[in-house]
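Teaching assistant here, posting this on the class forum so everyone can see the example we discussed in section. The complex has two components, and the goal was to see what a joint structure prediction looks like when all of them are supplied at once.
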Amino acid sequence: EPEVTQTPSHQVTQMGQEVILRCVPISNHLYFYWYRQILGQKVEFLVSFYNNEISEKSEIFDDQFSVERPDGSNFTLKIRSTKLEDSAMYFCASSRLAGGPGANVLTFGAGSRLTVL
Amino acid sequence: DAKTTQPPSMDCAEGRAANLPCNHSTISGNEYVYWYRQIHSQGPQYIIHGLKNNETNEMASLIITEDRKSSTLILPHATLRDTAVYYCIVRVAGNTPLVFGKGTRLSVIA
């Protein structure tokens, strides 16, 4: 079964450092997402991406965050200067459809755990 | 978007049906009910969705009341691997961001 692949599975970084989290969505999927989950808290939406541009973003997704689809397969989340509160599990997701009820059927990756010290 | 209410936790004996309720009394006519689950710290996993008719797939059944104000996700023969947090999400069709609540923590007991 096709899956969304995320790397690294765990990254430890120092506060203030830049971090890039990588995702390979399912190949024929059109919409891409990043969500995060701070330990013990809810899964929170960060950003959606369609047709090579941001479709929607949350208040969490401030100027420290950026997303990119540098080639036909990778989808990256960059955090420019990490803070302690960025420590979380980051999930990439993709959807095969753009529009209709099936568009909310997302396939999530296993996540990248970011620990900021 | 309609708000959903789910019990914080439930237990179910292995092999028995798990019935997970969700209240969405403010749902509007164009909103669908989606169910996802999250096993331990893994990424959420899609289970099923529906508008007004009951739906069934290989994972579960979704029963939506006639007035659409509540629904029940049914796992017909729960196994230990079904232990997870189950999320009921109401959204309009389209690529609007999913909003995850606290869900129901289902514990399947041997």
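For the discussion questions: Chain B has a mean pLDDT of 95. The longest strand of chain B covers residues 84-92. Think about how each of these relates to the inputs above.
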